[in-house]
Amino acid sequence: MKETVTLEASPALASSPTARLLSWQRADEAIGVACAVAIVLSISWGVVTRYWMPQSAAWTYEVAVIAFGWLVFFGSSACIRWRMHADVDALVALFPPAVRRGIFIFNWWLVAALFLTLALLFVWQSVIAHSIRLVVIDVPRSVVYAPMAFASLLMLWQHLLLKPWREGWQWKPSSEQTL
């Protein structure tokens, strides 16, 4: 007997595409876009000052690196909401439905624990690194780590909003299998 699995958007996903980018529902995406713009502008200004000004802007590298870190974490939060993270589930798809369900439940709790652990570790890192200043732009290192803790909490929140228990913890194949 062959089981058919359909891909459908959850309510958490359904409200997101229609929301404006500058809204609370898509704040993680807006922060990611702002970080991408900051990276491009920072690196561009660094190139301009290096080759056409008497002294290069040393702060551009630090700003670009910090913005990249924030882009990765806030972008990951948005990807969780859209279910766009990479799934390698070709092997799982071969298992019987009961085994797939067990793997799915274990994986869901494991990922939730990961996001909570990331948030706690970044909070801890923010606290212990607050007295250490960045080299060039002279701000506390907690400015780097605190947004990553917040983004990790957003990842956990987006993960919880998927609510797989509403559908009886049913495994869904990744979108690559439907292509």
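[next item in queue]
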Amino acid sequence: MAITFHAQVNEDDLFRFNMRHTYTSFSGIGSIVAGILIFTIAGVMHERLGTENVVLYCILATLFLLYTPIHLKLRAKTVMAMDSPLSRGMTFRLEDEGLAIETAVAGEDDQNQAFLPYQQIYRVSLTKQDLLIYTSRKNAYVVPRRDVEDQLDDIIEVFRSKLDSYRLSI
């Protein structure tokens, strides 16, 4: 029954995961609402505020809307530039008892290994571009669909048989 697959996460995959995680939370949605609200105030009250204040309001609104994506893009670039397990790829093996994960160790022939029993998997989500295996509300293994497209049906079937339906977003 063991299904083995390799995942190579790139900068765009990591950025996309972080954007999804950020903008599905209260703080991400709040920053968008704040930016739009500040733009609206600047537009509605432009006569009372004066040109200088309208420009300041527009700059502030732009910061609310652009800071988070720029920060997340730079962070993804930094993480991928470091010699991290993400940049070297991971090998996953679905076994009867759980998920075995192996990552290459920098400069060595050895592998770092971890085992995640199925009952410790928080959630499994399938998006347009990724298979996300969550170990907690915030942390997930990102498996790009392009790396598992030919095995995706088998992988989903294993997760369906091993996890409760409320832990699946497929």
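[queue empty]
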